[in-house]
Amino acid sequence: MHTTIETTGEANLAVGEQSKGQAEIVLEVKNLRVDLTTPRGTLHAVRGIDFSVRRGEMLCLVGESGCGKSMTSLALMDLLPRNAVRRADTLRFRDTDLLSLRPRERMALRGSQMAMIFQEPMTSLNPSFTLGDQLCETLLAHRKVSKAEARERAVYLMNRVGIPMAAERLRQYPHQLSGGLRQRIMIAMALMCGPELIIADEPTTALDVTIQAQILRMLRELQQEFGTAVVFITHDLGVVARIADRVAVMYAGQVVETAPVMELFHQPCHPYTRGLLECIPVAGRTVPGEPLQAIPGVVPSLIGPQQGCAFRNRCQQCRQDCAQEPPYVTLTENHAVRCVDAVMTEVTV
């Protein structure tokens, strides 16, 4: 029998007993901003984003490189570089104000109730320590358990994430595992203390397509089993379609659209979201030899003051109003868009 760690997911909160719409909010973010000091000036990496995640929900933050996804994840965990400043009107985990935590309180929360899966496991795992040492360290730091109980928990989770010969693997080092197995170790490490929230920063980017599919399926199954809230960061709309409950689309440091996953794919409202979907190659519709669909223009610089809609120079629907800061319009209970010309548009993807 494996060591029991009291968590929301494992103790008595079954996700199936309540719909996600009724489940309590685990993470609430309002007007989050991240500014970085650079030799060229202040870079506004995250510019006033709002979102929330409920228990048992998988929220995907999606956008192209440089849109602020990873900076958002680091801001949530307070792991920003030294030249970065984090501000927010609200940054709350359960009843805890993350902005007012002291260093000791922050350390107690991070890795225990809030965990993170990083993009590249080879650089996230310490090459000087065995896998067993690194897995058990998290549990020993946050829970009153013996080393034997910590090892038992580690073996149990390694088996759950599909690592063969788990007990023997505890004595191995990161370089002795493949990329896919290392990422499974990172997932097991995130689950060691049974966190209520996991932030996954593009955890499948460095993996081949077959291993990626296995990791995504396993992560979704574990998330549903343990009732964990997950913020999943990706640039891949195929990944979003596979695992998301709800999606927040980011562009130039802002969330430009939030919607349930199927509604976003079939009724995208922001021109940027529509542009992303139109860029997906579709078998039978893509003409051989013809160039693939692309969004014209380039992402604007985020250094210095920003005015108006950041997408306006690339938008085919741009008009004079777009020179002003666009409102964040609520279209339905679960669908909001940052655009002066927000219109529900049915598309086929």
Automatic annotation (TrEMBL):
Subcellular location: Cell inner membrane
InterPro entries in the record: AAA+_ATPase, ABC_Ni/Peptide_Import, ABC_transporter-like_ATP-bd, Oligopep_ABC_C, P-loop_NTPase
Entry's EC annotation: 7.4.2.9
Single annotated GO MF: ATP hydrolysis activity
Matching PROSITE patterns: ABC_TRANSPORTER_2 (PS50893)
GO cellular component: plasma membrane
Keywords: ATP-binding, Cell membrane, Membrane, Nucleotide-binding, Transport
Family from the record: Belongs to the ABC transporter superfamily.
Protein name per Swiss-Prot or TrEMBL: ABC-type dipeptide transporter
Membrane topology category: Peripheral membrane protein
Organism: Dickeya zeae
Database matches in PANTHER family: DIPEPTIDE TRANSPORT ATP-BINDING PROTEIN DPPD, OLIGOPEPTIDE TRANSPORT ATP-BINDING PROTEIN APPD
Catalytic activity: a dipeptide(out) + ATP + H2O = a dipeptide(in) + ADP + phosphate + H(+)
Domain ABC transporter residues, every copy: 27-277
Lineage summary: Bacteria, Pseudomonadati, Pseudomonadota, Gammaproteobacteria, Enterobacterales
Example GO biological process: transmembrane transport
